[in-house]
Design a protein that fits this description.
This protein is mainly alpha-helical. Helix content is 71%, strand content 0%. The model has no long low-confidence stretch (mean pLDDT 94).
Length: 448
């Protein structure tokens, strides 16, 4: 009981610290200096004023005007037409319906809508911990370390403190992953609940769609470990699909009516509207494949950890070097974890632990594939687009650091006694870094 209470107290402290840091970013980050924030805000405003749901159309994206706004740090004298930025009007409606209530109550306050995102982000942090406990039930320190990493990555804090549907999408992804892990490990999760969560994802954001495959994979894995009767599998999949397709079908049917078949997500119309965006093919033609790949890797890595505003304010070079070193250590530890003998505390009760790890890896692979696919057309080398896989990434990162700690401190029993908490302690160092970056980089660099 004492261990559980300490564990929960640590989680509460992480969430509280996140709320404080997130609120600081929400209140102090200059207006509109979170990527795509004006377009998301205007979607909320339209839903609050005219009802659901807006329609994306030509004129919602203006390359010249957006360039003027970002180059002048959204100077007040240039904001007279900011309400015309509406290129997120194709997005699924759930976040905007929720945010429209806050919009109405607050009179359209940008700060209030940002704080709503921060609160949603707290759910993402808790979901990271819950997934960690489901995957590593005997190693709660890994779950806590992962929650802290999710909470305090500088770029993630910035995104969760802006007006967008990213946080809600991550929360839904976390809940689907949690239900899938518990289900595959034999837990009492009704398959219709898995379908319902996936259906909620369908009306939240396109980035959640990959979780339909993850949930189906969990269903197949559990079936494979039991009777393996195809009738049983078919019945289970049908029970999963009914709520998922009912919820998704409402949104897809609306889009068919508005944008035509087969544009069930409005993405074809979106691509037509934002035709002025930079194209990957043009960039490759200009600088060549080698330079492009080098830029893709470095820009994706850097912006995953922190590149604020509309990619205009990168972190200091020393910060990226620290992230590179930590990433190398986590990767080394993860490789060790895959091949070294397991200690008693690391050994799980059955083979379903391996299946849970496969689910984590599948989310990462699918999110990365979606990122590569998106960048095959548009030049959008932003690490935040990998955040749908942030919870699995944080868990495997924390597992890698913990394994490396076990190896390095194995001869020093006294030091190793407190060793399990080392990854958590390291991740908590992001808190002062976040505050430092807010006051020394974000505010001065992004203010008009």
């Amino acid at each position: 009981m004492r261990r559980i209470s300490i564990e929960h107290a640590l989680l509460a402290a992480i969430v509280l610290a996140y709320l404080v840091v997130g609120a600081l970013y929400a209140l102090l980050t200059p207006a509109w200096q979170v990527p795509d924030e004006p377009a998301h805000y205007n979607n909320v405003a339209q839903v609050a004023t005219n009802g659901c749901c807006p329609v994306i159309e030509m004129g919602d994206w203006d390359t010249t005007y957006l360039g003027e706004l970002t180059s002048t740090q959204f100077a007040p004298e240039g904001l007279d037409r900011i309400s015309t930025i509406e290129y997120e009007d194709h997005q699924p409606p759930l976040y905007y319906l929720i945010a429209s209530l806050v919009y109405k109550v607050s009179g359209g306050s940008l700060s209030a809508l940002r704080l709503l995102s921060v609160i949603i982000g707290a759910g993402v942090v808790i979901a990271a911990y819950a997934v960690g406990k489901a995957v590593f039930p005997r190693q709660s320190w890994i779950a806590l370390a992962a929650a802290a990493l999710v909470a305090f990555i500088p770029q993630h804090v910035s995104i969760l403190a802006g007006v967008n549907n990213d946080g809600l999408a991550e929360l839904v992804i976390g809940l689907i992953l949690l239900a899938s892990v518990v289900y595959v490990r034999g837990g009492n999760v009704p398959v219709w609940l898995l379908g319902l969560l996936v259906g909620i994802g369908f009306v939240t954001k396109g980035t959640t769609y990959l979780m339909a495959g993850v949930a189906l994979f969990a269903i197949v894995l559990r079936w494979w470990s039991s009777e393996r009767a195809f009738v049983s599998l078919a019945r289970t999949i049908i029970l999963f699909l009914i709520p998922a397709l009912v919820l998704g079908g409402l949104w897809w049917g609306r889009n068919f009516a508005v944008y035509g078949i087969p544009d069930f997500l409005g993405l074809r119309e979106h691509d037509r509207v934002v035709a002025g965006q930079p194209r990957t093919a043009d960039d490759i033609a200009l600088i060549g494949w080698g330079a492009y790949l080098s830029k893709a890797v470095s820009t994706t890595f850097n912006s995953f950890w922190g590149q604020f505003g509309w990619m205009a304010a990168p972190l200091p070079g020393w910060a990226y070097r620290i992230m590179q070193g930590a990433s190398a250590l986590a990767l080394i530890g993860l490789i060790m974890a895959a091949f070294r003998p397991k200690s008693r505390s690391e050994t799980e009760a059955d083979d379903t632990h391996s299946w849970a790890i496969w689910l984590l890896l599948l989310v990462i692979v699918l999110a990365f594939a979606a990122y590569v696919y998106y960048n095959s057309e548009f030049l959008q080398l932003q690490g935040r687009y990998l955040y749908p896989a942030l919870i699995p990434f944080a868990l495997l990162w924390s597992k890698g650091l913990d394994t490396l700690r076990r190896v390095l401190l194995s001869r020093w029993e006294r030091l190793n006694r407190w060793g399990p908490w080392l990854p958590l302690a390291l991740h908590l160092l992001f808190i002062p870094l976040d505050v430092y970056l807010l006051f020394r980089l974000v505010v001065p660099a992004l203010s008009p």
